[in-house]
Amino acid sequence: MTWQPDWWLVLTTAAAAITFAAIAARRRRGSPRGTRARDLVQVVVALGLVLVALRPSGQHEREVPAENAVDLVVMLDRTASMGAMDHAGGRSRMEGAAEDLVQLVAGAAGAHVSVIVFDDTARLLVPATTDVRSVVTTLGTVGWRPSAKAMGSDVSVGVELAHETLTKLAAQRPGNDRALVYAGDGEQTQSTARGSLAALAELVDEAWVLGYGTSAGGVMPVAPGASELVSRDGVEQRSVLDEETLQEMAEELDGSYVHRTGGGTLPDVARPAGSAARELVPGADYYWVVALVLVPPLLVCLAVAVRRWRAVKEER
């Protein structure tokens, strides 16, 4: 049993109960039996109303999910090539990546999730948060960088920021596991060689590289939602998955590479900190039972009041 009082009602009904009790005590001797009985009924009703105002209720146990003891960092490629339409169902690579990452993040509810996106530069789009809903919304709307603004892609441009982010997370929650998920197509269009991801390996307990695209490649809209395709000298350009680069990146991270073509099992990065706890919470209200019990004495009081009113009226 627990209580959820409405204090202003408790104080009001308690004052009434004290008043009625004082009147009953003062008139206890020398009053007719009927008067004493009426006073007693009034006190009982007032005390019952105090009980109603205290709102007695039951209790039940509910399970409290255990905190997910993992810091998850997502690195998402949003270069123009991620707009290539060679994912399952003729969709863009970015649509496939966003769909996968939404599912992955939802499965790691309670984890601290950070999202780094990169095109010409890298930025921390979502600082570490346990708000799954906001991360899911962001991932579903991130899109890719229009080709007209692209300056050539470097698949390793986000490494420095990822290293900084992971180092900070390790200092904040040293007891947590850290997981890194890299999602991209591996296409390096800058003339310089890409940088290594090996520096991140020592900062993570688990790493996954998710690859999007096909060896046949796909055409690319100039911008998300556009019908015009990227072309050069009148020839439509195709972006091709560089699976070899992605596999090398996974090796540098001491992680695993998965070619994502739609469907299939995604990495499970959930790390419960312990078994789920249970807590007691208020259940069904019982004040209505007390109120129901008070109906007969209330009717008695009402009948007595009506009879007295009639008597006074007849005397006039």
Could you walk me through the main structural features you see in this protein, from its secondary elements to its overall organization?
Helices cover 39% and strands 22% of the residues. By secondary structure, the chain is α/β, with parallel strands linked by helices. The chain folds into two domains: 2-62 and 278-315; 70-259, Rossmann fold, CATH 3.40.50.410. It has a six-stranded mixed sheet with strand order 5-4-3-6-7-12, with helices on both faces. β9 and β10 (235-236) form a beta hairpin. The longest helix has 21 residues, at 33-53. It starts with a strand and ends with a helix. This is VWA domain-containing protein.
Descriptive labels:
2 domains; 13 strands; 316 residues; VWA domain-containing protein; three-stranded antiparallel β-sheet; Rossmann fold; VWF_A; alpha/beta; 39% helix; vWFA_dom_sf
Task: Map the helices and strands.
Elements (H helix, E strand, L loop, with lengths): L1 E2 L3 H20 L6 H21 L2 E9 L5 E8 L15 H15 L4 E7 L3 E8 L2 H10 L17 H14 L4 E8 L13 H4 L4 E6 L6 E2 L11 E2 L2 E2 L1 E2 L3 H10 L3 E4 L17 E9 L1 H7 L1 H21 L1
Parallel strand pairs: 3-4, 3-6, 6-7, 7-12
Antiparallel strand pairs: 1-2, 2-13, 4-5, 8-11, 9-10
Helix pairs in contact: 1-2, 2-8, 2-9, 3-4
Organism: Nocardioides marmotae
Protein name: VWA domain-containing protein
The rough form would be described as elongated
Task: State which percent range the strand residues make up.
Answer: 15-25%
Main-sheet strand order equals: 5-4-3-6-7-12
Q: Major β-sheet, in short?
A: 6 strands, mixed
Order of helices and strands: EHHEEHEEHHEHEEEEEHEEHH
CATH homologous superfamily (4th level) name of the largest domain: von Willebrand factor, type A domain
Instruction: Compute the average pLDDT.
Output: 85
What distance lies between the first and last C-alpha atoms, to the nearest angstrom?
Answer: 52 Å
According to CATH, the fold-level topology of the largest domain is Rossmann fold
Write down how many β-strands occur, each being a DSSP E stretch of 2 or more residues: 13
Number of helical runs?
Answer: 9
Number of folding domains?
2
Structural class: alpha/beta
Task: Please estimate the helix content.
Answer: 25-40%
Alpha carbon gyration radius: 35 Å
Q: From the 3D coordinates, which CATH architecture of the largest domain would you assign?
A: 3-Layer(aba) Sandwich
> What's the CATH first level of the largest domain?
Alpha Beta
Pfam family, one: VWA_2
InterPro entries: VWF_A, vWFA_dom_sf
Protein name: VWA domain-containing protein
